[in-house]
From TrEMBL:
The keyword Metal-binding applies. It comes from Skermanella aerolata. The keyword Transferase does not apply. Pfam families: Cu-oxidase_3 (PF07732). GO terms for molecular function: copper ion binding; oxidoreductase activity. This is Plastocyanin-like domain-containing protein. Residues 70-159 form the Plastocyanin-like domain. Keywords: Copper, Metal-binding, Oxidoreductase.
């Protein structure tokens, strides 16, 4: 046996993969013909909090959309299963990346700077949307800080059979066999939903929003081990307005199926409850189904009215409400300390579904 001795700590390796990740603007490897194309740039702006104060946020804007300079969460990206996806990314404000959370592309297109590179001026990400589901995209430069600063958005992969426009019906996953047995009340393989509620819960520590772009990257103690949130929001709407704001309320027709997509962008343990029975039909972009054509997947699980669902940081769930009865229904998120599990002061935000 040959033993190769090396230092316990390699300063050069730490510098490259820890403190100063490689910055570059390479050509996209194995670039092929795209079927869907997006553009993103970095923007910064101020956001009003519940107490009237303003905090600086960062995010990804679409340079082709007027008024998209304050995107928090960043604008939803929506593609179809099987499409070749291209996103031209121009940071414009220092080096950044876009990580496609849950998509699993090649390392060069995964947007993790410590294992590939950070984009200095421009790069076109490429990947194929293999699995319909709910995902996130976010910056992976100084990840803990930049995610808190608002650099994230929802990424949805729709099945091939989804409606090509904004009309109904829409589908959670492909209808392989429309005559298949029911997997959960009101949901069969390929069942359409009439309304969709997309909710991203977040908490904000104002101290972090005063930090520099690279704060904490090189071992300097800037307090990133201390997170003390003061504000609690859904879709960028503070918890004083979430039950009336159009960004956090969904209107539908009674008797129709409703799909609720939940994402936790907070650094809290998020406890979610609904005022109506629902079924868990997807977790982290993977469907819960029993269709034999796709193998032995887990079954959808009933989430009875009022039952707590704990959503971990960056986790996503899809909940199915079959044939929703007439009424107003609350979707309540309670934010709890990650270690002590104690609920934060004012740590509740409530969205609403209105079925008429």
């Amino acid at each position: 046996m040959t033993t190769i001795y090396r230092p316990i700590s390699d300063p050069l390796e730490y510098d490259t993969f820890g403190c100063h990740p490689f910055e570059n603007d390479p050509a996209t490897p194995d670039r092929t013909t795209r079927q869907v194309f997006f553009q993103r740039q970095v923007a910064d702006w101020n956001v009003d909090m519940k107490d009237g104060s303003q905090l600086q946020f960062w995010g990804f804007k679409d340079p082709n959309v007027s008024g998209s300079d304050s995107p928090w969460p960043s604008k939803i990206i929506r593609v179809k299963q099987g499409q070749i996806f291209h996103c031209e990314f121009k940071p414009t404000k220092g080096a950044h990346t876009i990580h496609w959370h849950g998509i699993e592309p090649t390392p060069m297109n995964d947007g993790v700077g410590h294992t590939s590179f950070e984009v200095k001026s421009s790069y076109t990400y490429q990947w194929c949307a293999h699995q319909a589901g709910t995902y996130l995209y976010h910056c992976h430069k100084n990840t803990v800080l930049h995610f808190e600063m608002g650099m994230y958005g929802v990424l949805i992969v729709d099945p091939v059979t989804a409606s090509p426009d904004s009309g109904n019906p829409k589908y959670l996953y492909d209808p392989y066999d429309r005559a298949s047995t029911t997997e959960a009340p009101g949901i069969t393989v390929g069942a359409p939903y009439a309304a969709e509620s997309i909710l991203v819960f977040d908490d904000v520590d104002p101290v972090w929003h005063k930090l520099d772009h690279n704060a904490g990257m090189c071992g300097d103690d800037v307090g990133l081990d201390k997170f003390d949130p003061r504000y609690f929001l859904i879709n960028g709407v503070h918890n004083g307005l979430t039950q009336i704001d159009r960004r956090t309320t969904t209107t539908t027709t009674a008797g129709k199926n409703v799909l609720v997509r939940l994402a936790n962008a907070s650094y809290s343990r998020l406890h979610v409850t609904l005022d109506v029975d629902a079924w868990i039909v997807e977790v982290d972009g993977r469907p819960l189904r029993t269709n034999v054509a796709k193998g032995a997947f887990a079954k959808p699980k009933l989430l009875p009215k009022g039952t707590r669902l704990e959503v971990a940081v960056a986790q996503r769930y899809a909940l199915w409400i079959p044939k929703i009865p007439r009424g107003d229904y609350r979707i309540t998120g309670n934010f709890h300390h990650w270690i002590t599990n104690k609920k934060h002061f004012d740590g509740q935000a409530v969205a609403k579904i209105i079925a008429t």
